[in-house]
Amino acid sequence: MVRPIPGVRFSGPTQGPAGAALAGGIRKLGRQGRNRRHRGQPVHDLTGRVAAIDTTTTSQGRFAFTLFAALAEFERDLIVERTKAGLASARARGRKGGRPYTMTTAKLRTAMAAMGQPETHVGALCRELGVTRQTLYRHVGPKGELRPDGEKLLAVKGRAPACG
Fold first, then answer.
1. Mind listing the pLDDT tens digit for each residue in 83-120?
2. Cα(147)–Cα(125) distance, rounded to whole angstroms?
3. DSSP alpha helices (H): ranges in 31-121?
């Protein structure tokens, strides 16, 4: 079983550099794949079907091609390592990545009070708070009771949940 690598897409022989070679020219091979197997596949597919690519028909050309492929794979591994180290460093400094929540504790408390009132129009409340109906109902029930995501939001902010 071949396990996909995050951030790497491999296109078949009719796309990418191989497709460009079929169309009459070779584009950059540097972004085709980040390992030797992916990088060499289009060239192997072209061998014998299209005019020979000079860099891969001789032993020196194959060596250079393999060397550049190994360097590209090494570069990708370095990027992955640096990214992981940067994320770990940020976590150690107390930073947390990701998109901020649209529902804040203040909005949650307002929503809980408003949803408890029978005359509340949910669409108007959502527009006022700047959240979607789905987000509102994920945090607060129809009668103003706190739901698990709402409890989690209050717990993350270090506050005890309000009555409900």
1. 999 999 999 999 888 888 899 999 999 999 999 898 99
2. 17
3. 36-46, 54-57, 59-92, 105-115
Reply yes or no on whether the pLDDT at 9 is more than 60: no
d(CA 21, CA 115): 63
Q: Give this prediction's pTM.
A: 0.46
CA distances for 156 relative to 37, 104, 139, 149, angstroms: 45, 11, 14, 10
Q: What is the DSSP letter of 50?
A: B
- Measure the CA–CA gap between 33 and 37, rounded to whole angstroms: 8
**Residue given tokens 């596949």 in the structure block:** 41
Q: Is 150 exposed, middle or buried (0-12, 13-18, 19+ CB in 10 A)?
A: buried
Residue 50 forms beta bridges with which residues?
47
